[in-house]
Structure formats: structure tokens, C-alpha cells
């Protein structure tokens, strides 16, 4: 098989795993063996819905290994495929347990920090931070804590954003495709195969998560997906692999990173960080009266724009990079303005 054929096979296997995992969990739900998410004040859905349907995404990651290694042109990317999964699988397992029996947030965070520290110590870290167009900063002893923070935050960003039918699956598939393209263009197709397997699984799962959702992804699928996306970002940042600056991955994932970070910081400043809520921008827009399909369309558009911005930014001149960063800031700032305006209108007109 050619390299392209292996990549296509990875996407196809992921698609099948995503469909199969969701169907299996739906069958278990019919037998009463799956935890049900009931509507409550912190959720947007109105009908009791089973969770855990993203288990096929975890399976896709495992199945990607024998498909990724044959296209590894060097030993390092192949090793990093295994290392990204060694980081992602404990989080996936943690989420699967939480999908069946709710765990304490502090315990989950502790497990994530331990897993991230081990992964970073084994090589899933970057020794320097490229910040185009400003230059490169040697991280030195900060390389490990920076990488741990990156891994844990990216995993949780995706988990936080999985709160509306189809939103995380649609945008996640775009993110995975963008990272796969970065990996292939950067000479690391093995990492691209892993990204395509996860992206394919998200599309397969989307068949059962499209509104109105028959099943939710659950923490198992969302934490694993976020962990893999974040892990791929660090792996691609290594100069001996692809040399993709972390800022490029941050741009690519920008729609989710901005929403989650803004919301968490805002709530932390108000002393509400650990309380249940519906204050992410996508939730606030829905509560202010936007139809769910319009909210999803906004985020899909922002995510597609983030992928395009990441590619444009990577090899652009300093002036173009500055312009791309400014455009991204304006686009994300517009989300804040539009959300607040919609909320004001909803209050004014009794919505």
C-alpha cells in the first residue's frame, strides 16, 4: 500500500469505529446499562439521552497504530504516535469510568496531571516556544510544566465544549483534518494517520449525535479527543518532527480554546470556577434565542477559519502573520460582542 492508501485506511477504520462504538452503546442503553443524562439547569438538551457514545473514538485511536507506523518515514514520529496515545488512553479510560459513575473533579484533574507529567517526561514536550512573528523563546526548565499545562488544558477544552448536539463532533473532525494536513505537509504522516483515524471516528459518531442527538459523546470520547488533539500539537511542534509552532495549533483550535479559556477565567474571577454552569458562548447564544443550528454553523465557520488561518500563518511573512493574528482576534472578539448583544435583546424583549 502507498502512503496515501494507509492514510485513507486510517480514516475509514476510524469512521467504522465511530459508528460501531455509538451503535454498541445505544444497544446497551436499550438494556438499561448506560448512564442517562437528564435535562437540568446546566444542560441545553430537553430529552433524557444516554452518554458514552464516543467510546468508538478511543477504539479508533488504538486501531490507528498499525496503520500509522507503516507510513512513519522516521523513527521519531512513529514513537510519538505511541506516546500521544499513551497520554490519551488514560484520559479516555478516566472519562469512561466517569460516564458510568461520576468522579470528583479534583480526582480527575489529579489523574490528568500525573498522566501529562509522565507523557511530557517521556518526550511529549517542546524545549522552546516559537512565537511568530516575535521569535523563539527557550523554555529551559519551564519546558516540562508548559507541556503539562498545554496537554491538560487542551484535553479539558474539548471536554468543556462538548455540550451541544453535534458541535464537538463537527468541529473536532475539522480540527483533526487540519492537524492531519499539517502533519503530512510537515513530513510526519504517521501523526497524520492518527489524526485522520480520530477525525473519521468523530464523523462516524456524528451520525448518532446530529440534532436531535440519540446519544452523547460522554467524557470518555471528549477527553480522549482533546488529549489526542493537544498531544498532536506538541508532537508536531518538535523541530525534529515537523516544527509546527504551538501558536499554529492554538490558531487551528482557536474557536474552542478561546471560548473555554475566556469562560473559565471569567468564572474564576467571580469565584465560580468549579460550579456547574451554562455560560460558554455557545450556551449563552442558545439561551439568548439562537437556534442550535445557527450556533453550530457559527462555530463550524470559526473552526474552518481557524484551520485556514493556521496554514496561512505557518509559512507566512511576519507582516502577514501579524495580520492573521489581528483578524483572528477581531473574529473571536466579535463573538463576545454578538453574544452580549443577543443577551441584552433577550432580556429587553422578555426572551
Strand order of the largest sheet: 1-2
Number of domains: 1
Judging from the principal axes of the Cα atoms, what is the shape?
A: globular
Q: Please trace the helix and strand order, writing H or E for each element.
A: HEEHHHEEHHHHHHHHH
Secondary structure class reads mainly alpha
User: How many H/I helical runs?
Assistant: 13
Strand content range = under 5%
Estimated radius of gyration: 19 Å
In the predicted model, the low-confidence regions spanning at least 5 consecutive residues are none
Distance between the termini: 58 Å
Determine the mean pLDDT.
93
Walk me through this protein's architecture.
- It contains 13 helices and four strands.
- It has 351 residues and is mainly alpha-helical.
- It has one domain (3-348).
- The strands form two sheets. Strands 1-2 form a two-stranded antiparallel sheet.
- A hairpin with a 3-residue loop joins strand 3 (128-131) and strand 4.
- The longest helix has 31 residues, at 318-348.
- The model has no long low-confidence stretch (mean pLDDT 93).
Amino acid at each position: 500500500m502507498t502512503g496515501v492508501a494507509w492514510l485513507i485506511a486510517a480514516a475509514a477504520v476510524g469512521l467504522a469505529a465511530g459508528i460501531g462504538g455509538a451503535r454498541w452503546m445505544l444497544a446497551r442503553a436499550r438494556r438499561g446499562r448506560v448512564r442517562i443524562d437528564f435535562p437540568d439547569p446546566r444542560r441545553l438538551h430537553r430529552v433524557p439521552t444516554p452518554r458514552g457514545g464516543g467510546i468508538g473514538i478511543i477504539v479508533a485511536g488504538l486501531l490507528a497504530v498499525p496503520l500509522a507506523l507503516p507510513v512513519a518515514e522516521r523513527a521519531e514520529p512513529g514513537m510519538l504516535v505511541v506516546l500521544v496515545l499513551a497520554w490519551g488512553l488514560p484520559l479516555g479510560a478516566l472519562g469512561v469510568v466517569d460516564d458510568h459513575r461520576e468522579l470528583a473533579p479534583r480526582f480527575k484533574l489529579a489523574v490528568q496531571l500525573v498522566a501529562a507529567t509522565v507523557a511530557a517526561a517521556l518526550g511529549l514536550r517542546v524545549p522552546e516556544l516559537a512565537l511568530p512573528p516575535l521569535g523563539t523563546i527557550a523554555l529551559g526548565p519551564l519546558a516540562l510544566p508548559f507541556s503539562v499545562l498545554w496537554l491538560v488544558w487542551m484535553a479539558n477544552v474539548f471536554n468543556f465544549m462538548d455540550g451541544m448536539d453535534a458541535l464537538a463532533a463537527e468541529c473536532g473532525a475539522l480540527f483533526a483534518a487540519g492537524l492531519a494536513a499539517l502533519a503530512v505537509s510537515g513530513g510526519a504522516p504517521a501523526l497524520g494517520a492518527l489524526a485522520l483515524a480520530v477525525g473519521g471516528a468523530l464523523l462516524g459518531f456524528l451520525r448518532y449525535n446530529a440534532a436531535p442527538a440519540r446519544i452523547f459523546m460522554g467524557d470518555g470520547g471528549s477527553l480522549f479527543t482533546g488529549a489526542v488533539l493537544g498531544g498532536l500539537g506538541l508532537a508536531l511542534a518538535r523541530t525534529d518532527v515537523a516544527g509546527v509552532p504551538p501558536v499554529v495549533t492554538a490558531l487551528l483550535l482557536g474557536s474552542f480554546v478561546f471560548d473555554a479559556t475566556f469562560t473559565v477565567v471569567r468564572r474564576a474571577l467571580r469565584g465560580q470556577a468549579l460550579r456547574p454552569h451554562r455560560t460558554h458562548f455557545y450556551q449563552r447564544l442558545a439561551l439568548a434565542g439562537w437556534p442550535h443550528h445557527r450556533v453550530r454553523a457559527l462555530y463550524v465557520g470559526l473552526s474552518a477559519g481557524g484551520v485556514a488561518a493556521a496554514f496561512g500563518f505557518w509559512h507566512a511573512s511576519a507582516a502577514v502573520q501579524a495580520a492573521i493574528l489581528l483578524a483572528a482576534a477581531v473574529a473571536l472578539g466579535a463573538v463576545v460582542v454578538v453574544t452580549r448583544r443577543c443577551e441584552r435583546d433577550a432580556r429587553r424583549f422578555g426572551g
